[in-house]
């Protein structure tokens, strides 16, 4: 196997990186956001950062609209501009070589521009904290050190940090990647990203990186709340930081819950969706080999009977959101959105 290509020549200088961030990214990504938090509740509660994290294809794009809708209602009212919405994967499109690489050597577009994109995401996060804005950030956690830095940026700035960790079996996220590409689904085109088939290594790196992120959440105690959520917005674990700094509300660690849910038998709804998706992909001849791989990955997760409860799996509850003036204590499936 030949060595990977040297992509160092694509790295931008600090000066060029800053110029692009100031001249292009800020006007495009922050044009509808106020220069600082103007909510009437600003003095009563700290700004809020929600981090929605899951490997590529896990379903972040489908989860985020529900969070954003709840954000508008709970934090500032439906007439406000709402929170900043940062999507880690979209920043690479601002790299001056991204379009050319997509046209000539698309397999290099992401690795060549990724290092600068990751810097811009951190810069955007710091800009959010400078303005004291609420924020929803989506990340695949392919580089878990970046996730650590992001949590520290928000926590260090006095934010309340709530994390939604998508616990999705690799078979379902690999299937999700294929479906959004071959069926040209909207979630395959976040903002101005072109439709692209995510390489298997990118998926596998993010799948592994998410577990590292979960371990960090267990060890650091920097998050104020963490929910472990399956596809379809079903909550398996919810833990909340107590006054003593320790997490409470669930059995076992966050990392344990993530690993456990990745191995849980599919629910009837998940199984039906997966089989329907495989049937759709059968119409695409060039997807046949990858569909075969996904079929094999699904086998350990499929049973003829629904035995999940017999095996002692935790109960799954639908994801809901905190409401103004309503206590959420003791309800593990509620993403609090700062409502304690």
UniProtKB/TrEMBL annotation:
Record-level Gene Ontology MF annotations: ATP binding; kinase activity
Please report the stretch or stretches of sequence annotated as the Zeta toxin domain. Answer: 43-236
Its domain of life? Eukaryota
Q: Which UniProt keywords apply?
A: ATP-binding, Nucleotide-binding
Q: Report the InterPro entries cross-referenced here.
A: P-loop_NTPase, Zeta_toxin_domain
Q: Pfam families, alphabetically?
A: Zeta_toxin
Cleaved signal peptide residues? none
| Name of this chain's protein | Zeta toxin domain-containing protein
Q: What is the lineage of its organism?
A: Eukaryota, Fungi, Dikarya, Ascomycota, Pezizomycotina
């Amino acid at each position: 196997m030949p060595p990977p290509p040297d992509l160092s020549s694509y790295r931008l200088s600090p000066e060029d990186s800053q110029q692009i961030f100031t001249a292009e990214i800020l006007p495009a990504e922050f044009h509808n956001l106020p220069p600082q938090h103007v909510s009437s509740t600003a003095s009563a509660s700290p700004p809020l950062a929600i981090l929605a994290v899951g490997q590529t294809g896990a379903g972040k794009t489908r989860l985020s609209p529900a969070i954003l809708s709840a954000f508008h209602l709970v934090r500032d009212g439906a007439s406000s501009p709402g929170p900043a919405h940062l999507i880690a994967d979209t920043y690479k499109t601002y790299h001056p070589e991204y379009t050319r690489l997509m046209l000539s050597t698309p397999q290099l577009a992401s690795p060549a521009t990724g290092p600068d994109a990751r810097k811009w995401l951190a810069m955007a996060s710091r800009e959010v904290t400078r303005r004291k804005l609420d924020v929803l950030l989506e990340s695949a956690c392919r580089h878990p050190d970046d996730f650590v830095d992001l949590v520290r940026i928000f926590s260090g700035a006095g934010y309340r940090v709530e994390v939604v960790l998508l616990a999705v079996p690799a078979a379902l996220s690999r299937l999700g990647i294929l479906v959004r590409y071959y069926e040209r689904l909207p979630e395959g085109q976040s903002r101005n990203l072109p439709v692209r088939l995510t390489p298997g290594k990118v998926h596998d790196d993010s799948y592994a990186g998410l577990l590292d992120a979960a371990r960090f959440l267990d060890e650091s105690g920097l998050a104020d709340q963490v929910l472990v959520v399956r596809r379809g917005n079903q909550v398996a674990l919810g833990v909340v930081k107590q006054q003593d700094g320790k997490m409470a509300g669930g059995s076992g660690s966050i990392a344990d819950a993530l690993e456990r849910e990745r191995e849980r038998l599919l629910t009837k709804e998940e199984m039906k969706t997966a089989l329907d998706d495989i049937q759709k992909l059968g119409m695409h001849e060039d997807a046949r080999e990858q569909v075969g791989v996904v079929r094999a990955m699904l086998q350990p997760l499929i049973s003829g009977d629904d035995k999940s409860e017999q095996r002692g799996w935790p109960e799954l509850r639908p994801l809901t959101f905190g409401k103004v003036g309503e206590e959420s204590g003791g309800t593990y499936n509620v993403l609090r959105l700062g409502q304690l």
